[in-house]
Amino acid sequence: MLLAQSLITMKRNQQAHTYCIALFALCAALSAATPAAAGVKADFQYMLSDFSGTIPSQWARLDVDQRFREIYTFNRGDRQVQIFNENGMEIFTFELQDNAGSVADMTVGEDGSIYLLSNRAGAASIMTLDYRGEPEGRIELSGLPPAMETFNTDCLVYRNNSFYLVDSASLRILVVSREGEFKKLHRLGVQLQDMAAEQDRERKKTQGLEMGGFAVDDQGTIYFTVPVLFAAFRLEQAGVLESFGRSGSGPGKFGVVAGIAGDGHGNIYVSDRLRSVVMVFDHNFEFLGEFGHRGNGEENLIVPDDIAVDGEAGRLYVAQAANRGVSVFRLVFQ
User: Fold this and answer.
1) Of the residues 76, 149, 306, 325, which has the maximum number of CB atoms within 10 A of its CB?
2) Which percentage of the chain shows pLDDT scores above 90?
């Protein structure tokens, strides 16, 4: 009797052991068959510097010369343009002359020309400088549609032989040729106001509705953020407007979004002032990861704002507050 019970117990233990082995093998097979989740890793490289060390700046405007792998910064407060090589070392700097007028923004052409968004006597124009900061002339805007006298542009981007001028408060984007001739006007106010009303039906909240960051990629796709909507947007050349983002304090969520950029692979980068991070999304708006986080370490960020991406070199430049300067990260997609 005892012998029979022992044999039954041994048999049950063997079956349990066999089941555990089979279950383990199945889990291992499933793990091997399932590809690793896509993501991104950002490694801190350096701060933009000169031979004395890191150059302080407060929310500088950024643009990249893709041909020479150089990064340009514009500091509105001291009216200074600085140029850095691909290793982050300053190679040239100059202050804007008085005849430049009131300068709101800067962008860089593919030939190294520097373009300034200048306002004189209430009229906007684009001032052209050579790579040494010497004035070459002005581009006057022409052929504009009616009511453009109320167009108060505060952002300028040059891509693919076109200038993009932005009136952040009125949510309008003006596109002109390299010669300043009118090409297109995007009026986004109605669409964005409807979205704001949908989010807050009781109060119909639309005050404070303006763009935060703005960028155009090499294919002519427009990206921008609207902080009060906790949203980022992609506007295709065909006119299709798409949005993504959700309010929150966790990974991939939006606090106070600011700068935005897109690379040649469709990846989108969004900075968040409140959370002090840069978030990365793929072409389908799937969250890939984030980096930065407030702190004093070299890999940390302090209230990041404007960002610029050099997709071919895999580098991302991030302007910050508190005179922290511009941090440079190398991106590795997994």
Assistant:
1) 306
2) 70
